[in-house]
């Protein structure tokens, strides 16, 4: 049984860790307002705007989660040389995050996800993105920047949102990191066959089904069968499958699975929960946790952020408080 005091000591070591994050950087904009009537022009609500906010999204949300927990996060990625890219970089700077790993490109448009929220409900989401495959020059520049920024890092996270920044060539380059640097991957479908050799891969339920090529019911033997298939396909060392209301399944090997139940709580917004999971799991491992301890911490953290509206992270104090509410831990 895991001791809660051990988990507390792991959290205390978060501030000693430096983590590289490579992936699809995005700007999350929120337009907040209230609805009092339906438009006379069409059967849609009229939102009276009260405020607007901008947040770190995509792989930048992984960075935000690491920073909120006290770690030094090192983002690497491509941005458009536009207003949204400058806003995202300024947001990093305001949070004390280095921007030395950011590459700006005139040929790219910074990805934006714009959500209109009224009465604590999302009315609509507007995506601004032009997905263009990386050219050889862009990929080479990213690889060079990764090599520079990886120095001093205890772990690296690949946050793949499927927006074309993560390429097979980039993944192959990262796989050649020094072996003592843990590599964690949050996967997307188009790169499934290029994640081979990662220390841990963290698919959600649907991604795990597509990776395994079969349906998964957490309440029967299909989960174990799927896990074995994913190990065979990816040749990864560990596998952490997030299962929504069914918690998480931590595979230490093809036939060795630990189920981590979820905590019953009100869910406001699941967006970004996967970012929290990979951030906390990887950070905990870098801070000396074993795989089971890291997964328990990640599960507790996810339970906190889904109770918040919008792109969210949590503080060490919130994570510590969440742990103290968990059953099954030794005091």
Can you offer a commentary on this structure?
- The protein is α/β, with parallel strands linked by helices.
- The chain has one domain (about 5-325): Ribokinase (UDP-N-acetylmuramoyl-L-alanine:D-glutamate ligase, 3-Layer(aba) Sandwich).
- Helix content is about 35%, strand content about 25%.
- The strands form two sheets. Strands 5-4-1-8-9-10-11-12-13 form a nine-stranded mixed β-sheet, sandwiched between helices.
- Strand 12 and strand 13 (about 255-260) form a beta hairpin.
- Helix 9 crosses helix 10 (about 315-325).
- The radius of gyration is 20 Å and the shape is globular.
- It starts with a helix and ends in a 7-residue tail after the last helix.
- The model has no long low-confidence stretch (mean pLDDT about 95).
Q: Please write the string of helix (H) and strand (E) elements.
A: HEEEHEHEEEHEHEEHHEEEHHH
Gyration radius, rounded: 20 Å
- The proportion of residues forming helix, as a percent range, comes to 25-40%
> Could you report the average pLDDT, rounded to the nearest whole number?
93
For the record, the CATH architecture stands as: 3-Layer(aba) Sandwich
The CATH superfamily turns out to be Ribokinase
Amino-to-carboxy terminus distance:
10 Å
Number of helices: 10
Find the structural class using helix and strand composition: alpha/beta
Q: What is the CATH class name?
A: Alpha Beta
Strand content: 25-35%
Total separate domains: 1
- Unreliable runs: none
Task: State the strand order across the main sheet.
Answer: 5-4-1-8-9-10-11-12-13
Shape: globular
Strand runs, count: 13
